[in-house]
Amino acid sequence: MTAVVMASDGSYDPVISKLITSLKEAESLSDEKDLGFLQNLLQSKELNALVNVHSKVAKINKDDRIAPLLSASVQILMEVLELLAPRCHISPLCKEVFHLLQTPHLQSILFAHDAIAQKDFYPHLPDIPVEVDEDEETIKIVQLVKSNEPLGATIKTDEETGKIIIARIMHGGAADRSGLIHVGDEVIEVNNINVEGKTPSDVLSILQNSEGTITFKLVPSDGKLDQRESKVRVKAYFDYEPENDPYIPCKEAGLGFQRGDILHIVSQDDSYWWQARKEGEKTTRAGLIPSRALQERRILHERTQKEPNGDAKTENDDFDREMIATYEEVAKLYPCPGVFRPIVLIGAPGVGRNELKRRLVARDPEKYKNTTRPMRPGEVAGREYLFVTREKMEADIAASKFIEHGEYKGHLYGTAADSVKSIVNASCVCVLGPHYQALKSLRTAQLKPYIVHIRPPAFEELKKSRTKARARSTFDENNSRGFTDEEFMEMIKSDERINFHYGHFCDEEIVNDDLSEAFEKLVNFANKCETEPLWAPASWVQ
């Protein structure tokens, strides 16, 4: 007599029930001993429990309510432990949390969470046995159900054999989730259509015209590449639109992004095309993006093509031409109590960054400190200020001891790097408004600056807001007057140049069309920098 297996909630497991029914129908054709063994196995509580667990885990990709927010909780755990370790002797609470996070049960839960988030639970076919007859070609049949989601694999023609092979498997795509298709597999048939002699475009046409179930006949590759996800996150320094890229292997598989987006690079196996997802998005399917090497080649090619006409030379005396902005590896930088990141405001002359800096310092003079200010009554040269000979100043500038320097009314001046470090070491927030060229000296792992780009609005709004506020021109040091239209245009042009060459280094930007609103945003950004973990160059965190 045949029994049926029930799930933990009392419902029948449809897959197990169907198998048992099939066995019952085959009783007269099968060995009674083998049949009994299979029935006992299918009816066992252990197997039923495993099937239930698998079914629930498989629903993760189908139910947004239980989709994992991240796949690296263990890595974050280790970072938290590193932050807590030096404080255990100071705070009993830190000590308690430090020991709690090291308990085996908690760490096991996080390891299991990451394994599910990274889909390490999917089955993998065993490798082809070594003793297989060399003359006998192993064939595998794979069926995938076509839906609105791409299959998640690209194909190419093998340069040596001319055969169609699987070029890449997209992480999290249908092919990847099946665990049955691998890079290097040779495609023999698609829906019973022989693909010998066909091009990848021909095969794609077959797939596009197919409906329902798609059946692949494949010859397995000799070896299977590891499909585990990498942990690398990068900040994109350029915009990318795959639909407008004539060289991408498959436009549908591309991932578009904008400058400033944080991308999770899940695979760098291909020299030219990485696989990535946008950080924070719930989708598990990765998309193709140009690799760093490919994008650098493109940028160099564009510069070479434009230089003969001079089009590429956009007033770049202040720009390092050897610097090619593509991606920068980043990690979360967690706030450290008592150690504040310097706030750096950059922007075009006259945009208002100095006024915003002044207001921020005036808001809390004990917390926010400026490295440069006018001499106050009662201050003595040599105590509050240090005056040196011009020769000494020039020597220190040559020795890169100044973050920025300049000349005013015949006198050299500058902001010393040591003065910034002393403010940080005093548990204060150093507020700087340097020339944007100073970013080359400021953006270091030692200072870890939080950079805000202060930008002007469009011309009409810029003119209207400055006229209403009776703003005085910063272009004329000898006369107090309003801005001219030419100065407004120069401000916008300078801002565009700064944004093109240095904008990707900025953590935030503020459009200063209303000074009060711009200041409120600056205060919010300053608080965010002190209280929230933020993306920063990975070298700063390590």
Give a quick precis of the structure.
InterPro entries: GK/Ca_channel_bsu, Guanylate_kin-like_dom, Guanylate_kinase_CS, L27_C, L27_dom, L27_dom_sf, MAGUK, P-loop_NTPase. The protein is of the alpha+beta class and 542 residues long.
Please characterize this protein's 3D structure.
Keywords: Cell junction, Membrane, Repeat, SH3 domain. Residues 229-299 form the SH3 domain. There is one protein chain. The protein is of the alpha+beta class and 542 residues long. It folds into 4 domains: 39-60 and 70-121, no CATH class; 140-219, Pdz3 Domain (Roll); 233-298, Roll (SH3 type barrels), CATH 2.30.30; 334-540, P-loop containing nucleotide triphosphate hydrolases (Rossmann fold), CATH 3.40.50.300. Helices cover 34% and strands 18% of the residues. It has 17 helices and 19 strands. The chain has a 6-stranded antiparallel sheet with strand order 10-9-8-7-11-19. It has a 5-stranded parallel sheet with strand order 13-16-12-17-18. Strands 1-6-4-5 form a 4-stranded antiparallel sheet. A hairpin with an 8-residue loop joins strand 9 (273-278) and strand 10. Helix 1 (14-25) packs antiparallel against helix 2 (32-43). Residues 1-10, 308-313 and 315-322 have low confidence and may be disordered.
